[in-house]
Known about the structure:
Low-confidence stretches: 80-153
Mean pLDDT: 80
Structural class: alpha+beta
Amino acid sequence: xxxxxxxDKDFYSVLGVSKDASPEDVKKAYRKLARTYHPDQNPxxxxxxxxxxxxxxxxxxxSDPEEREQYDAIRAMGSGARFMAGGxxxxxxxxxFEDIFGDLFNGGGGGRRRYTTxxxxxxxxxxxxxxxxxxxxTRFSTxxxxxxxxxxxxxxAPPTKGEDIHTTTTIPLRSAYHGTTVKLRRGNGQTTTVRVxxxxxxxQRLKIAGKGHTGPGGNGDLFVTVKVxxxxxxxxxxxxxxxxxxxxVSEAGLGATxxxxxxxxxxxxxxxxxxxxSGHRMxxxxxxxxxxxxxxxxxxTVQVQLPADLDDAAQEALREFARATExxxxxxxxxxxxxx
Length: 340
């Protein structure tokens, strides 16, 4: 990159930092912008690609103390006048970039000149004078000169990371409740242990940084999609666990206390009120899934169940029950509800 470009470009503005930003501030700003505009995150987006090149170029200069010092000096020197690229003196409204530096280095005189960082006078001497000392610390990169890979070099893409790995693992519902670890075997025989947090949801994707394929810019990441098996008794809805508990006619009618299994491999004693109908739902607080600081509940649905085969005594008891409750019609309001 030529000095003309450094005068034209405000690298501080590109990264969104102040001119007195610390190296750490520069690094943080670059990383944040790079994540947003990286080509992998914006495939086919030419504007994002250009923005990524701009912020990479700005970071390359501002993150290097020597190049930043050179950049600040050239920007300060060019703040009062516009340096035109090339051309004879008097052309295009004034002296060209080379003519101005020619006057400084060689005591004036027209014509086009080439300047180097040799002992015969050049950029180092110039900036030593600006710094108030001969042979100061200011240095221009010797890695290619203008347009090379050094301080005035053009954009050079950073090394690419290795490819990410995407895979799927399936765990039981109880493992999702407690949390677990799974071992994943890669094609090269290596294994990676992945910690699955408690409360993980079906279809949730976990990211394990640096466990992808190896590349010149570092390792890619490992992404694991977790599938949770269905359970014959427990059903998950959000953070809540739903179960259906069968009760007898007498338990529902007279009331009872029944034991209900829980996902933590224990049980709770649930009080079924007298006169409970099939389909009635009750809540057991804090027996659902935990995710972060939130814990769900267990929702118990009561289902009145009769034996498949009733003997004579049971049938007679039901007939007696029917006679005792003959004034009760659970379908009395069906016609009205259906007519709405």
